[in-house]
Write a structure and sequence with these properties.
mainly alpha, 265 residues, two-stranded antiparallel sheet, transmembrane helix, 7 strands
Amino acid sequence: MIDPVAIAIGPIKIHWYGIIMGLAFLLGTYLARHNAKKSGIDADHVLNMVVMIIPAAIICARAYYVIFEWDQYKDNLLSIFYVWEGGLAIHGGLIGGVLAGAWYVRKHNLPFLRIGDAMIPSVILGQAIGRWGNFINREAHGDVASEQFMSHFPAFIRDQMYIHGQYYHPTFLYESMWNLLVFAILLLMLYFWKKFDGQVLFSYMILYSIGRFFIEGMRTDSLLIADTLRVAQLISLLLIAIGIILLIVFGWKSRQAKHTHNSVE
């Protein structure tokens, strides 16, 4: 078992979860600035947005999780602030990040969809990295897995997924790998396949949500509504539907605009 505390100096403890999340934010910020420059956007705006987006995302991710898991926090309200123990809901973080980013974009009159396209590969990369924080905390795993099945994984993953005498599916790994695949697709789309603003952002909504929907069905710690419906699966279906509609509508508008432009010429 990997100790969740990476460094301990007296009473000060630095957790692997925090280190991994910090790494995700740093790499994501660097990539977003690079993509912004390539998209004709002042990279300083990205940095200013990140300063707002990160705390907003963390606060909303925690609030989202606490709301759905209120029973485990109501008797010890101070534990709400123990974010290093895990309990950050990605969909909550996305809500906070989008709201903070939208406010900044509106204030400075910036192209929302173009900035969204430039920044969203950083988001999925951060999600891929962040799942390893769940690995350290031995959370976000699936149901019981056989020893034979787990023998296909490296020993350090196998050992960390051996909890209370049983092996569990490393769903954190499944999602991390899926997110890396989506990251590669979005990056290629941004640099080589992009036809209109919003294409990369809408594709993220669809691709990430497809993977999340199926992997969420394997997990044992899903946030639930009425003790039966998995919140993340419902949100994923909603995002897939919205993403497809937006992709079709904006793609059609883009083709119409090009057709009109060619006709004028």
